[in-house]
Amino acid sequence: MAGQDLVLHEEEFNKIRDVITRLRSECNAKLIFLVDKNGQQIAASGELESIDTTALASLAAGNVAATDSLARLIGEKEFSILFHEGERDNLHISVVGGRVILVVIFDERSSLGLVRLRVKKGSNELATILDVMMKKSAMPRKAAAGGSPFAEITDEDIDKLFSD
Amino acid sequence: MTFINYAAREINCKIVYYGPGLGGKTTNIKYVYEKTNPNSKGKLISLATETDRTLFFDFLPLDLGEIRGFRTRFHLYTVPGQVFYDASRKLILKGVDGVVFVADSQAARMEANLESLRNLELNLKEQGYNLAAIPYVLQLNKRDLPSALPVEEMKKQLSRKGEPVFEAIASKGNGVFETLKTIAKMVLIELRKGR
């Protein structure tokens, strides 16, 4: 169902973080992050201070969405990899498990070949974790989280957000 | 599709401003950007043409504070209103949690409002959503223009399900935050229901 919420629990978050942290070191990359196809950032590893990751997540998702549509227009299923080459930094964008986007930012300390190779391997691991995450997301929230904190939200809680 | 991150204790929701070209969607979120505390907002991203028409989308992340220990973030998007950008509009609706329809009150734009509304219903359906079921607010913008149609007449033509309706002059900020607060509340109430 299109309205299915995406729920990320501590256990999967830690696993994802471990995989992308290791992947970053194997790729010799500056920054790696994982974004869902709707533009929400799931996890990140690396030199985050200098980059607006929220904007980057949204734009990466827009980029992938537009490219997917372009692929279908010319009769391709997808373009599995997007690569943007800059003067200093390069962006390698790939889709993992058909549902999330892996973005790798790297400079001259690494190479496209190395990034492609490592990303391919890391993607399989991530896909397995994401499968579990999706299954848990589809479960009723109470069962998955040991009680949903959101069922308890009061009108007052919501009004408080808009108090100023 | 709300993204609930238990690890970072964050809730992320997506709100899309929809409506005909030059109706004031971008003006709405620009006003929100200008009037929001710098600590509560991210960068406003506008993918626009040289003449400032929205080409792909505008994007504004907003941090509304904590609710039950979770940081509540809203991502506001606008779609390009011009008819021929339909492929882009479909992409932006993916994962939407709530929709604001920004209607242009000028009599001459009523046909464009209706066409855009039909387009919204169709595009939502294609993504597996139903306008009748998702949080939805109607904003009647440009109320200050002399050719603005009476509110009742606009409601009659544009209202789909007894949704909240707000009169607005987005360029001056009238009605902008009322609209945003209402849609945000509706999204959070939906979240409370769970699915």
Within the CATH hierarchy, at the fold level, what is the topology of chain A? Beta-Lactamase
Alpha carbon gap, first and last residue of chain A: 36 Å
Number of E strands of chain B: 8
- Please state the average pLDDT score of chain A: 88
Q: Approximately what portion of the residues of chain B adopt beta-strand conformation?
A: 25-35%
SS class of chain B: alpha/beta
Note the overall shape of chain B. Answer: globular
> What is the H/E string of chain A?
EHEEHEEEHHH
Q: Into which percent range does the helicity of residues of chain A fall?
A: 40-55%
State the low-pLDDT regions of chain B, or none.
none
What would the average pLDDT of chain B be, to the nearest integer? 93
What is the CATH superfamily label of chain B? P-loop containing nucleotide triphosphate hydrolases
Distance between the termini of chain B: 11 Å
CATH class membership of chain A = Alpha Beta
Q: What name does CATH use for the topology of chain B?
A: Rossmann fold
Kindly estimate the percentage of residues of chain A that lie in beta strands according to DSSP: 15-25%
Oligomer type: heterodimer
What does this structure look like?
- The complex is a heterodimer of chains A (164) and B (195).
- Chain A has 164 residues and is α+β, with helices and mostly antiparallel strands.
- Chain A has helices spanning 10-27, 53-73, 112-138, 141-145, 155-161, and strands spanning 6-8, 31-36, 41-46, 81-85, 90-96, 100-106.
- Chain A has one domain (10-161): Dynein light chain 2a, cytoplasmic (Beta-Lactamase, 2-Layer Sandwich).
- Chain A is built from 5 helices and 6 strands, in the order βαββαβββααα.
- In chain A, helix 1 (10-27) packs antiparallel against helix 3.
- Chain B has 195 residues and is of the alpha/beta class.
- Chain B contains 5 helices and 8 strands.
- In chain B, strands 1, 2, 3, 4, 5, 6, 7 and 8 form an 8-stranded mixed beta sheet that branches.
- The model of chain B has no long low-confidence stretch (mean pLDDT 93).
- Classes of the chains: A alpha+beta (164), B alpha/beta (195).
- Chains A and B meet through strand 1, helix 1, helix 2, helix 4 and helix 5 of A and strand 1, strand 2, strand 4, strand 5 and helix 2 of B.
